[in-house]
Amino acid sequence: MQFKPDDTVNKLIIMYVLDKMEIPLTENSILEICSSQNNWINYMDCKDLMYQLIKAKFIYKPNTANNENRYNITYAGRDCLSQFFTRIPASLRDSISQFAKENKMHFKRSQEYVGSYYKNMDGSYSVELKILEPLTTDSIFELKLKTDTRHNAIVACKKWRELAANVYETIYGKIIDD
User: Taking the domain 7-103, which CATH number applies?
Assistant: First the structure.
């Protein structure tokens, strides 16, 4: 017999994911984790359940300056989860915990280390690289570069996710600590 979760269990799954990831997540990240990558919850159900969890004050999305909402579990949500997490099958809890352990840094990087580019009038490309504050999504570091090709702009944005922390640490160390 295959396990078929109900809405209550699915709500607990969403809260469990937020708890195990230990970082605020965008709506797209939650949908990707719960629906696209792991098929734990149907996509449309997941969106609706997130709304219900916000309304019940078990998760929240703080208002941010750049309108990129990130969701996190509330104290009431953690309390509820601590009392009812056993309703999530142990194998699924293990799967969620393992996924969080293996993928937390990927999601952290994709949400906090962001890069974008645009074409300039002269045919070159401007690349904007940022490190965002996790809870407020305010920029704590910005770097703007100019490249000669679109390919270089794309490469810079991709590399930024892996190198942002080291670049920031080096620049901060040279300017502030020396």
Answer: 1.10.10.10
